Amino acid sequence: MTPSAAALDAPSGISPARPDAHPVLAEAVRSGFVEGGHRGSLVVLAADGSVELALGDPTAPVFPRSANKPMQAAAVLRAGLDLSGERLALAAASHSGEGFHLDLVRTMLAEHGLTPGDLRTPPDLPLDPAEAETYLAAGNVRERITMNCSGKHTAMLAACALNGWDLTSYLDPAHPLQRLVHQVVEDTTGEPVAAVGTDGCGAPLMAISLVGLARAYRSFVRAEPGTAERRVGDAMRAHPEYVAGTRRPDTWLMRELPGTLSKMGAEAVQAVALADGRALAFKIDDGAGRALGPVLARSLRLLGVDAPVVDRIGHAPLLGGGDEVGEIRAAF
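The structure assignment produced for this chain is given below.
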């Protein structure tokens, strides 16, 4: 399946229908009173890849945001870049900006004859709030290398340097590397890209359905050993702290449920695949990140996952006067 010119040229403003019939996936309950809800769509795949549960419209295209990163990492491998271990996990990361993340980004840049000045990520603070406070207290300022996508961008630049592709235009959708990313997205999701936009880090962003996203994650855990997809899935699962950070749910889930692949995306997107091929993906329509944990925990329980980490991820308290007076809870 090759990227179509129409898909590559699709305007970033395309917006799929968001029917009011999308169910409330999570609700905010304060002092016993339901004060709000978050609608969205969700799909759960059985081990054979068939749809086991669908809520809302999981066939409508969405921007998966950083949940697309495993596909982008697979593309740099297909481009011939030889990454493994922590380096490959960081290529698929939305890292927290912890010291070990930034140290490895700097090392990877140097290994490939690159510098932080080659990055086209927007200057930013560490993604993790605690890391951001420490970073600012030390007198630091926003930098390109600190942005949570700097590992992905480093891998993209390294692949371009290896192939003699232009480094300054590596984020152009028509660039050879981004056309390869487009190809991987369509190969792993089993569907054409519905639209191309620009992600927060500046990279091209491919719109796909939640069914396609779940199918892609399933492929990363079920692919044959040695394939680009399996190499990325194995690296992420072996080094989850490099995919996210020490205080992040994706890390907890992959560390405490061996064989699980998990990655969140901005605007409240989440995709997970279990070792046996079962998978899920969801999107909260209003982008409320506070709903991610409760919806993810409920989805995992529907898959029969019963582990302390599920309770930990699902706990989303609401505070009043510094005390817990309610919660964000799943509503399905």
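Interim note for the steering committee: Residues 1-14 have pLDDT under 50 and may be disordered. The longest strand covers residues 33-45.
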